Structure formats: C-alpha cells, structure tokens
User: Fold this.
Amino acid sequence: MNNKKEAAVPDPNKGMTIIVKTITRLTVGLILLYGIYILSHGHVSPGGGFAGGVIVALSFIHIMLAFGKDVALKKLSMRAASFFESLGALLFLLIAVIGFTGGSFFLNFFADKGEPFKLFSAGIIPLCNIAISLKVGAGLFSIFVILVMLKFTVDGKKGN
Amino acid sequence: MLLYFLCLVLFSIGIFCILRKRNLIKIIIGIIIAEYAVHLFFALVGYRAEGRSPIFTPSENIFNMVDPLPQALVLTAIVIGLAVTAMMVAIAIRIYDKYGTFDITKIRKLHG
Amino acid sequence: MILYILLIIMIIGAIAAVQMQDLISAVIAVGAVGLALSIAFLVLKAPDLAITQLVVEILCLIILIRATLKKDLPFSTSGRWFFNTLVVAVFTVTFLGIGYYCLKDLPVFGQPIMKVANIYLETGLSKTGASNLVAAVILDFRAYDTLGEATILFTAVIGVIAIMRRVGRKKVGEEVEEDE
Assistant:
C-alpha cells in the first residue's frame, strides 16, 4: 500500500484543508523540538520524561490528523514505534540493573554527579528521562494509530 | 476543609455518572472526572501555605517548599490514567462494532 | 481564593459533562474540567503536574473525540427512571455526608505533615544532584514506582493491540488492514 506514496507531495485529497496542512508544516518541527527540550531539561526545570514523551507523541499525531494516516506512518512506522517502546523499557531496566554493580537496585552509580543546575548533572536521572520519554511517546503513538485504524475499517464496513 | 469538601463533591459527581448513566462513553467520562478529583486531592494535601515550587535555584536558599512526594505520585498516575482511558475507549469501540450501540442495557441481550 | 473559583468551574464543567445530551459536547466539557485542573496545579505550586496534565488532557480529548465521532446516539429514558435516579442520589448524598465527617481528621489545608518529604528536601540536592526535586523523587528515591508505571503502560499498549486486532476476527469479503 505504501509503494505508491513515494512522491514528496502528499495526496491532496487525504487529510484536512490546505490551510491546516500549511500551518502543520510550519509548526510540527517546533513542537517536536519543544518536546525534546522538555525531556532533556527535566532535572533542572519543570517537565520530565512523561510530559516530554507525550509532547513528542503529539507532534506525530499532529501530522496524522492533518495529512492522514499514510504520511505519518511513513515518518514513524508501527514497527519503528514498537522498537522504540521496547528500547525504552529495556534501557530503563538496564539502568536499574547496572546499579547492582554498586550494591542496590536503581543506584545512582555515577561517582561524579556533576555540578548542580547544569544540563549534564544528576547522574542517571537524564538517562532515565530519555528512556521513559521513548517509552511513553512510542506507546501513546501506537495506541492512537491502532484506534484510528480500526475506526477507518469500521466506517468502511458500515458504509457498504 | 471547604476545599477538601469541594474536591469530594467533584469525586461524587463522577461516581454519580458511573452509577446512573447507561452510555458507555458517559461511564468513561465519569471515571475520568473521579480520577481528576483524586489527583487534585493529592496536590491539595501536599500544599503548604505561602510555599514555593520544589525546584532549587542557584541564587537563593528556599526553606518553604511544598511537599514533593504527592506530586511525584500524581505525575505517574496521570500517565497511567491516560493509558487506562485509551484501553477503555478501545473496549467501547469494540463493543460498538459488535452490537451497534453504546447503551449497556441493550448490550445485555447478547444478539451477537 | 482563586482555588475556590477554579473548583467551582470544575464542578460546573463536570455537571455539564454528565448531563449533556450529545456526546461531543460532553467530551468538550471534560476538556474544560481538565484544563481548569491544569491551572489549579499551577496555583498549587506544582508546575510539573501542570505541564503533564495539559498535554495529557489534549491527547485524552483527541482519543475521546475519535471514539465518539459520528456515533451520536439518543438516550433511552425508558425503564424505572425515577427509582434508579433516587437510589443513586441517596447513595451519593450518603457518601458525601460520611466523607464530610472523615475529612475532619485530615491536617488543615496549608499545613502538611511532611514526615517523609523533609528528608528529601534536606538531602535531595546533595544526594542526587538534580535541582528539580520531583524528578529526583520519581527517578532516584522512588524509581521502583516508575518501573511499575512503565509496566502498566506496556500492558495497556499490549491490551489495546490485542483488543483492536483484526486477525482471527475477519469476516468473509472484508479486507484486513494491519501493520502489526
């Protein structure tokens, strides 16, 4: 199904109107960048992995709502989403297990925790934020994709 | 005290919606409202009068921070609530697909 | 004072969401309740919760609207309408009355006990190096809770995929559209 979509210009009949598509093209990169900022500064300012992950998922959902399903799945396919979700879970568990080298579960194992109030500080907390945001973002995106895909097939069946 | 009671009123509106309404989406809405009330109650319990946010700043020493522990508990509960809501919506859509209605009294008839 | 106004707005929004006849309006009213809750978190000095609640509310609203679109159904008011409403109302009022007496044992609003949190407030910065104490609690002091949360999220995703899959439920002449 995806092989006829290789053109750079998406199908103008799918998705919303030209105004929504133009605004989406301008704003979606900024939304993704804001999500990355929120998750990477989670230990020095408000935010964190949960909010950053949800914002990253919302940027992909934004593409899906404006351009239709195929364009969004070309950016981040379901296989990639499930890979990133599993990667987040395994990364979080790996950080927890590495703590056993120092004696306990979830040990903050960096000897030098860095200077406070800087970006590279606080030991394992930024790494855990990245892992959680991968997990939350990919998980919520795949939930939304699956809900939307079933809705399309049900509408087609009811329309016949 | 009155704030706690208003929070309890919000919770009981959610309970009323769960118990009384017959539409599945209305039941999901009731669960969401009760969940919001619980989150707000946790944040209210941890509040300290004239407090500051639990974030250190390099320029000054802060001694009157609010309680960070309920905020940390609620932060995970919000995301769990979203996932559980998505799962309930999935079950509701599947029921609509099978029975053609959201009404729980008609679902009981088992004509699938 | 602003907390009272926000709570009254939330209660009005909740009553509107419960009593509204069409489902789209009810879902929008739930969105109003959630956004007022986000402002209330900001007033209660919890900016982490405010950001998370804001973005989660938007995603929750999108999911609920996708579920209710083009499926608006009239309500059936047949059956024992008066009896059902009376029973539920009596239960709710009894619950409120008992809750009112139970709430008197809580600490006064604005003066929390904070037995556990004092340790976090005193030693959090030197032990973890993170200036945001909420991040320090959820990812260092109580990271086991966060591991459980990740497990629940994983289970919810698997549950949605298992409920929504088309494999094994295919009828004759129906096309299967699935990437998983």
